[in-house]
Amino acid sequence: EEEEEDDDLVMIDGDGTDRRTRRGNENRRSQQQEQEQTRHENATNQQQQQQQLVPLLPVRAVFGLLSVAVKITSTILSKILPSNVLSSLSRAFRAHRLNQRYLAASARGRGAVGPTRGDPIEAAKEFRRTFMNENDGNCLINFVELSHSDALRMAKSEYKLCFVYLHSPIHDDALGFCKDVLNDPNVASFVNEKFVAWGGDVSNSDALLLALGVSPSSFPYCALLNSSGSRVSLVVSVEGYCDSDELLEVLEKSIEDASGSMSEARSRNEAAENDRLLREEQDAAFRASLAADAAKEAKRVQEMEEEEARLKEAENERLENERIESENRRKEEERAMALKNRREEKAARLKPEPEMSVTENVTKIAFRMADGSRVERRFASRESTLNDVYDFVDTLECISETKYSLVSNFPRKVFHRTDELLIEVSELSSNGAMLFVQSEEQ
């Protein structure tokens, strides 16, 4: 009431006119302005939301059409492609989606990771190196550096379960689990003794494929896989962080439960191995009998073939000898004819021997033949050349070589067919020179 009385005041102007005022008018006007501004902002927001919804409508329509197209395509492919091909494609697509989800989670968490590694053996080695680096150089569990499929085959051959650890570095418990649980001496000793251990980082394709098969709901993830049967089965899995005692308890109980199936698998494999060995022995005996019969027949055929080959070889040898003899006769005849023609040709153009009465400018040369015989001849020193000396030797009947050289002994020098005058050859300028006929034929 006091406020209402305060609001209604009467002021008298100088001219006597009264004017009623309300001190609360200013407050009311301020409230009205705020309400009007709020209504204006709400209207603006609604208009913006409507404008944002307008471009989304075509996008939603497109995605709806795409989903319908995918369903139709899947139906058509299921009727065209074999089931195993569809299964492989579906598995690869699920692996790609799991990989993309992991990369997205890693990018939101600790930073984006690199591309998945394709080589499973290199990925297993890298996992072991990273494990040791993050745990002060310790890796007490003997993780095999193989692909997970090869690790399963190794466990099957040793009649053991396969201990699998899937590592996800984007989870906070991963490092602590590796350091406090997997590197616990009791856990490591038990795992190394009882299982074939394999570990992998889910950032590589090999570990992603295994994760796709076991579908872990959380990390860190450990599992025991049994590959003793025709298919790989999951014995037990430990998802999320647990201490070493809890993990040992689960592993011990699981190996007790699986011991029966492992013993049964060992018995089946031993029985199958015995049957295989028996069949191999029977097959070997049968093959040995067949081999003995075949050896006898082969020996008989071989003896016949060897006899035919011997006769054929003898005939070929006879024909070859006749051919060689004929060829040698032909070559000898050609050689004799060539020597005869050479003697006649060289004798026709040979310069005459100086008379015995001529003593000046005369060179006397003795020729020693390969058979030891000796022939002498006098040449005009100022007219005869080394070619004339060779022409004289070519005319001798005792020369049967088509290629030869004339050589002096002291000093040893080979004289070639040239136009050099004898008087210019110091070794032959005097009388009494001796030349040896040296054959050059092979």
Radius of gyration from CA coordinates: 57 Å
Report the count of strand segments: 11
Q: What's the tally of helices?
A: 10
Structural class by secondary-structure content: alpha+beta
Q: Order of strands in the sheet with the most strands?
A: 8-7-11-9-10
Q: Outline the biggest β-sheet.
A: 5 strands, mixed
N- to C-terminal distance? 152 Å
Q: For the residues shown, what is the average pLDDT? A: 80
Question: What's the order of the H and E elements?
Answer: HEEHHHHEHHEHEEHEEHEEE
How helix-rich are the residues, as a percent range? 55-70%
Shape designation: elongated
Poorly predicted runs of 5 or more residues: 1-24, 94-99, 101-116
Proportion of residues in extended strands: 5-15%
What would you note in describing this structure?
With 442 residues, this protein is α+β, with helices and mostly antiparallel strands. It has ten helices and eleven strands. β7 and β8 form a beta hairpin. The protein is elongated, with a radius of gyration of 57 Å. The model is unreliable at 1-24, 94-99 and 101-116 (pLDDT under 50).
Task: Pick out its properties.
alpha+beta; 442 residues; 5-stranded mixed beta sheet
In short:
By secondary structure, the chain is an alpha+beta fold. Helix content is 58%, strand content 14%.
Q: Topology, please?
A:
Blueprint: H1 2-7, E1 9-12, E2 18-21, H2 25-80, H3 83-108, H4 120-134, H5 148-157, E3 161-167, H6 173-182, H7 185-194, E4 195-201, H8 205-214, E5 221-226, E6 233-239, H9 244-349, E7 362-368, E8 374-380, H10 386-394, E9 404-408, E10 413-415, E11 433-439
Parallel strand pairs: 3-4, 7-11
Antiparallel strand pairs: 1-2, 3-5, 5-6, 7-8, 9-10, 9-11
Helix pairs in contact: 3-8, 7-9
